[in-house]
Amino acid sequence: MIPVAVAAALLAGCGAKDDGGATPAAAATSASPTAAAGIADKPADEILADSRAAIKEAKSYRLKGSLVEEGETITMDLKLNGNEVMGKVSVGKDQGTVEILAVDGLQFIRPDAKFWTVNAGGEAGKTLVQMMGKKWAKISAKDQDLSDLFALANLDELLDAGGTVTKGETKQVNGVEAIALLDGGSTKDKLWIATTGEPYPVLLESETEGGSLAFSDFGKDQGIKAPAAKDVVDFDKLTGN
Question: Are 203 and 179 in contact, with CB atoms under 8 Å apart?
Answer without folding.
Answer: no
